[in-house]
Design a protein that fits this description.
The chain has about 90 residues and is mainly α.
Length: about 90
């Protein structure tokens, strides 16, 4: 993931970028620096995904749920044509 790589390669630049994002949202420079530093200490990747890309890690769908939904959709889609073949009208 690009953001993870950027955090590993240049954490200071990413901290400055996060500070700039919070400043653009109306925080003072000092407050933005403190917020960015505290969020980065807790979970740097989550802080950047949330602020920079509007991605919330808790909103990401599980691959297993996606697989089950795909399997169910495939099964339903396959059953309908089978009914048309197996239950033809009389005559």
């Amino acid at each position: 993931m690009k953001e993870r790589r950027e955090l590993a390669e240049d954490p200071e630049a990413e901290l400055a970028e996060l500070t700039g994002i919070y400043q653009s949202k109306g925080l003072s420079k000092d407050t933005a620096e403190r917020v960015a530093a505290e969020l980065t200490e807790h979970d740097a990747l989550a802080a950047h995904l949330s602020a920079e890309l509007n991605i919330d890690e808790s909103d990401v769908v599980s691959p297993w749920h996606a697989a089950y939904a795909s399997a169910a959709a495939f099964a339903v889609g396959a059953v309908l044509p089978m009914f048309a073949i197996l239950l033809p009208p009389a005559g």
